[in-house]
Amino acid sequence: MKSSDWKNINLGTTLNGIRHTMVKRVLSPYGRYRRFLMKSQWWPENKLRQYQFKKLRNMIHYAYYHVPYYRRLFDQNGVKPEDIRSLKDINRIPILEKEDIRLNHKDMVAKTKFIPVLYRCNSSGTTGKPITLYRNLHNVGFEHALIMRQYAWGGIQPWERIATLKGELIADSKIDKEQYWTYSSAENRLVMSSYHISENTVEMYVKALKRFNPVAIDGYPSSLYALAKLMLEKNIRIPLKAVFTSSETLLTSQKQVIEYVFACRAIDYYGMAERVAAIHTCEYGQYHIIPEYGYVELLNCDNDNGDYYEIIGTSLTNFAMPLIRYRTGDIIKTPENPVFCPCCRNYPVVEKIIGRMDDYIVTPSGKLIGRLDHIFKGISNVIQAQLYQPDREHIVLRIVPDKSYREQDGKKILNNLQKRLGEKMLFEIERMSDIPRGGRGKFKSVVSKVNISSGTFERQAV
Predict the structure, then answer these.
(1) This prediction's pTM
(2) How much of the chain, in percent, has pLDDT values that exceed 70?
(3) Is 192 exposed, middle or buried (0-12, 13-18, 19+ CB in 10 A)?
(4) C-beta separation of 141 from 29 below 8 A
(5) Which of 249, 322, 382, 460 is most exposed by smallest CB count within 10 Å?
(6) Residue 348's closest CA among 258, 277, 249?
(7) Which helix H or strand E contains 362, and what residues bound it?
(8) Within 13 Å of residue 259, how many CA atoms lie on the same side as its CB?
(9) What is the spatial distance between Cα 161 and Cα 156, in angstroms, rounded to a whole number?
(10) How far apart are CA 415 and CA 311, in angstroms?
(11) pLDDT category of residue 371 using cuts at 50, 70 and 90
(12) With bands split at pLDDT 50, 70 and 90, how would you rate the model's confidence at 87?
């Protein structure tokens, strides 16, 4: 970074980067897990299965003796840890719903763990029901090592410069100066805002990218596509080694534009705040379920083809708040016939990730905001939430409150929304007893009736 760029460093972003770096790479056993994952990716299938069963059996044993919810659940269903003698025996344990976590939250945290030292995260998920989750350092380190391995599959090393285009907020002082990005020197990253991409700002984003000169970008598909589409309209291209996408479904139309503008492959990977399953893309562009991370069961959906499945996942590394047979609500499509991948890893192949299909929010000035689950962080008194946009000037926050809901909870969500949209729009809260689901029973956290750029931005039906 040039010395002149230090004035653009946001102290809060850097301090947060230092905290994340310390937790992920220093305090956690990241190094040990990274070495392990670089070896385990070449294991034969039977060794991977043996590893999964050993980790699964340990998790079930631990959950029974240290997590009140599972002790109660197992006893009610007549199941003991020693009854799980194979991977198939996990079917004796009931599927875990998100509502089960909400209703039994305190009893799902292991009693051997001291909550203040655990890593806390929040999830709204595809069902729109926010919950607080806890992780231990082993889980944090394992996941970070797994992400670094995904980067390695894309030809990127941990020390190389990365730009991010996700849900981070940029300081108001920078936004006032029309600087929609900041530098995190601790992580060697350019952190860009997803909430200010428009025809008027695209050249500013391009200038920041060229100055930072990253080797790759990691971001939400909707944000990356919005930026790439506007760059394409201005005939601007920035060659990179790779673009990584996650947290949303990567559409074919998005992938084509992103790959053309950045002259590299768009590498998609899947995970969730609950940390029970991971799907990564290998060097040959094939999706693979990662067996070292979680034990994944595929629940067949009711469809004509029979190759659509819901992901049911069990964490193999998070002993702080074990989730066993958790229903993710996310759908994948498997190949009709067995597929051999040239990467030669003995990981199950996935044809397509279907889940997480949210609409965009369109601001009055034409900015496209594709992911807003961050506005629900810290809110625990809402059962379901959805943003509905009937027109460019109007957003309705639909919520299903629980008994502990207070008026200030809704105001806090609207305040978070206002910070991210930053424009004069009319916001209102609509309380509902239930929010209707869309096709295939999938909940959409954002529903917009606004025509996006008169058809400029495509959306592919699933």
Answers:
(1) 0.78
(2) 84
(3) buried
(4) yes
(5) 460
(6) 277
(7) strand 361-362
(8) 12
(9) 9
(10) 34
(11) low
(12) very high
- pLDDT tens for 195-251 read 888 888 999 999 999 999 999 999 988 889 889 988 988 899 999 999 999 887 887
C-beta separation of 52 from 310 below 8 A: no
Statement: 1-356 belongs to CATH 3.30.465.10: no
Top-level class of domain 361-455: alpha beta
Neighbours of 183 (CB within 10 A): 23
Closest CA to 288 of 240, 241, 342, 252: 342
What is the spatial distance between Cα 361 and Cα 453, in angstroms, rounded to a whole number?
A: 12
71 against 413, higher pLDDT: 71
Q: pLDDT confidence of 17, banded at 50, 70, 90?
A: low
Residue with the two structure tokens 């100055």: 211
Residue with more model confidence, 20 or 272: 272
How far is Cα of residue 328 from the mean position of the Cα atoms in its chain?
12
What tokens appear for 155 in the block? 């030809």
CATH 3.30.300.30 residue ranges in the chain?
Answer: 361-455
Residue ranges of the chain that CATH labels 3.40.50.12780: 1-356
Nearest to 45, CA basis, from 352, 350, 351, 349: 349
Pairing of strands 189-192, 162-165: parallel
